[in-house]
Amino acid sequence: MATPDRPNRTTLRAHLSKLKREHPHRLAISVLIFIMGGILLIGGGYPLAGTAWSWLWLRNQAGDVVVASLGVILIVLAVARVSSSTWVERAKLGPLIFAAWATVIALVVTLVAGVWWAMDTPAWMRPPRMTTRMLLDVVTARVFAIVAGLGGAALLVIAYRRQKSTEEREEREATKLFTERFTTAVRQLGEEHAAVRLGGVHALARLADDAPDDRDDLVQMVIDVLCAYLRIPYAAAPGPRSEDTNDEQAAEHHRRDLEFSSFREVRHTVIHIIGNHLRDGTKWCRMKYDFTRVVFDGGDLNGAKFFGSKVDFTNARFTSSPVSFRNAWFSGDLVDFTNTDFSASAADFTGARFLHTTADFTGANFSETTADFTETNFLYTTTDFTGANFSETTADFTGARFTGGTVKFQNIGLFSTTAKFRKARFTGATADFRGAEFFGGTVDFRNTNFTQAIAKFMAAKCFSGTLDFREARFTDSMADFFLVEYIGGMIDFSSTNFTRTTALFTGDNFIGGTVDFTNARFASGTVDFTNARFTSGTVDFTDAVFEPPPTGLQEAIDKGEHGAVIRPEQQQGTNNQNGESEDPRPPD
Fold this sequence. Notes:
Layout: H1 6-22, H2 24-45, H3 62-83, H4 87-90, H5 93-118, H6 132-189, H7 194-210, H8 216-231, H9 247-279, E1 289-290, E2 295-296, E3 305-306, E4 310-312, E5 317-318, E6 329-330, E7 334-336, E8 347-348, E9 353-355, E10 358-360, E11 370-372, E12 377-379, E13 382-384, E14 394-396, E15 401-403, E16 406-408, E17 413-415, E18 418-420, E19 425-427, E20 430-432, E21 437-439, E22 442-444, E23 449-451, E24 454-456, E25 461-463, E26 466-468, E27 473-475, E28 478-480, E29 485-487, E30 490-492, E31 497-499, E32 502-504, E33 509-511, E34 514-516, E35 521-523, E36 526-528, E37 533-534, E38 538-540, E39 545-547, H10 553-559, E40 565-566
Parallel strand pairs: 1-4, 2-5, 3-6, 4-7, 6-9, 7-10, 8-11, 9-12, 10-13, 11-14, 12-15, 13-16, 14-18, 15-19, 16-20, 17-21, 18-22, 19-23, 20-24, 21-25, 22-26, 23-27, 24-28, 25-29, 26-30, 27-31, 28-32, 29-33, 30-34, 31-35, 32-36, 33-37, 34-38, 35-39, 38-40
Helix pairs in contact: 1-2, 2-3, 3-5, 5-6, 6-7, 7-8, 7-9, 8-9
């Protein structure tokens, strides 16, 4: 339930936003007055702290009272000026002049009172007896000063109103001109001839470039139109013409082919213009882009910088001609690739940067293609591939950097997929593969570095594929393989280094295949095999080092199938009197 003062705060924020956009000088003056009032309030109010109960009764505190009161008045005036900023524009000239005179008089009185107080409030001294001529000169000078001051204030008000009127008139003319140019350019986009439509695209781009720096709304309006043009449905390219077509059918095929080609040329030009502006770091970078359901059959977004609050590729399709996001920058609130289809084109994000954002690839389709995220940098970003389709795909994250944030591959099915995370670095990040299913193919984490990170493979299933962690390093991290099922295939932890890391293999089921812990090193951490089941296949702990010993491993070996486990030296039986090794587990 909203608090009673919420509408007031909302109204004040709205006034501040409007002032900043339309009248930045007025907001700056108001802030300056507010700061001056605060300084005076502090300067005058601080000496009163120790005499809170007696300051009204002490003569030597009168100046502090005046200064503190003046500070309060200025703060109130500043707030009132912000919240009623449009009064100056709406008021007539006469009331404005009288308000200016009142301000000048108040300022003079305040200055005189301040000087009097700074001089330790001297007593009023009767002026010496003056002749009539002298008195006339004094009165004349004072009157002239007063008239000059009031007249100057009136002239300032008049000049301000005139300047304001001129600015408003120029703004109206600029808005009118923009509207006329915008209407003409949009009308050109609807023309039949491709050349006219191309002219409209370039006219819109130039119009956005000419927009004032403080009018992002005009730039956004142009971009919205260009994105909407890309979303317009169009007829697909006609197939190859059969040899037995007559002249009429051949002419129709030719017409459709020309229509498709011309429409595609205009669309490619729109993408090209957007890409150029985003690469050049213009004000286009901070805008929002809506590419929902757009078909990308060409164009280039290589090096584009998306810094707006949202970039939306939901349900977009990338067809035979690849669109590159190589070295692109994505920031803002959301980068949305939900249900985007890359199956007919390579998805190239090599060297891209996702900075403090959410990259949503939920349900994206990468089947039978290449998803290249080599050297991509995910900085404090939540990247979600939940439900994405990587069947028969090469997903390459080699050398990628995950700093903070989370990358999610929950419940995905990797069927005959090659997923490379070789030499990737997870620093303070979470790699979430909970519930993932690996059918054939290879998931490669060789030489991957996990530092203060979390690797979650809980309830994953590995069927007849290879999950490779050779020479990976887990430092101050958690490796969670709780309830994982190893059914055939190869799981390789050989030479993997777990330092000050919690490695959980609790409840894992080793059924067939090979799980290799050869030369693995577990140092200064926790390793837990409680309730693990070694039922068939081979689990090799040759030359593995556990410091301290693992929890539950011996119990799991004792309960498992004899010969399924090749144990580390620490788990081997001791030698008997004849120097022969004793196996602590009874034979079958």
